[in-house]
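Session log. Operator J.P. requested a structure for one protein chain; no other inputs attached. Running the standard single-chain path with C-alpha cell output.
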Amino acid sequence: MPELPEVQTVVTELNKKLKGRKIKRVAVFAAKLVSLGPNTVSNIRDVTQKTVDQFCKLLTGRKIVSVSRRGKMLIFNVDGPLTMLAHLKMTGQFIFEDKILAKKTGSQYRLLNKPTAPLVKLPSKHTHVVFYFTDGSTLYFNDIRKFGYLRVVLDKEMGDVKEFREYGPEPLEKSFTFEVFAEALKKRKAIPIKLALMDTKVVVGIGNIYSDEILYHAHVRPDRRVDSLKPKELKAVFGQIKPVLQTGIKYKGSSVGDFVRTDGKWGSMGKHHFVYGRKKQACLGCGTMIVSMKLGGRTSSFCPREQV
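Structure written below.
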C-alpha cells in the first residue's frame, strides 16, 4: 500500500498541480530518504550531508515538466538532463499546498485514515522532504515509517535504474495481453495465484488490496496454485485485472491506513471493496461470511462460496 490506483491518483493530481512550477528551495530532514544515481536506496544506510546538498542543488531552480509513473514509481520530469524518482513504499505521502489550500486548512491534515486521527500541522515530524516553489506553493513528502525514497537520476542513467529493469508489464497498457500474462506465469507455476499477481516481474502495481478484489471477481481462491488453474480460470483472472484497477482509479484509490490524496483528502475505493478488509462480514454477492488466510506473510480475504 499504496498500489497502482493510489499511485496513479497521486500522479494525475500532481501532474496537474506541479506542471510549470519552479523549485525555489529543497529542504531535507531525513537524509536516508534521498540519494543520487540509478541504484536502489537502502533505507538503513548512511547518507552523507554532501549527498543531501547535491540532491537539493540539482533540483533547485528546476521547473516541473510533468509527473508520470512506471509501476509504483513516480517520475518527476524536470527541465534539464535529470529526473527525480519517488517511491511511496508503505506509508509515503505527497501533499501539495498552495496559498488557497493553506488558508483553508491551516496546513493541518489527518495523515491516518481514521476520523479520530489527530490533525497534524505540516511540516511535522513525519515530513522528511519539502519542496518550496517560487510562487509560494509547497510540496510535502511525509512518510511515517520512512521506507519511501526520493532519487535524482541523470536522464542518460534511466536505463540503469534497477526497478525499471526488473519490472514486468504495465497492466493497463494495450500490450498487456493474456498471452503476455500467461507467459510470465510459466515461471510461477508452484506459487499461489495471489502471490503471482503481486509479483512485479509478472505484472506491476498489484498488491494485497487489488489482488484480493481481482480474485473475488474472477471467482478464484487466492491460495490456488498457478498450475492448478484451468485456462478458463486464468483467463477469468486476467479479465478482471484491468476493470478492478480502473475502478480503483475511478474512486481515487483505497484510503485504508495512511493513503491520502495530494490535498489531504481520502480516496473512496474502500467503500467499494468486495472482500479486502471485510473478514467476518457478509459477502456482497451471496451473503456467506468472508474469511481470511495468511499467504506469503500477507492477509488474504475471500468468499469461500463464490471463490473455488
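Operator note: The chain has two domains: 4-166, 178-302.
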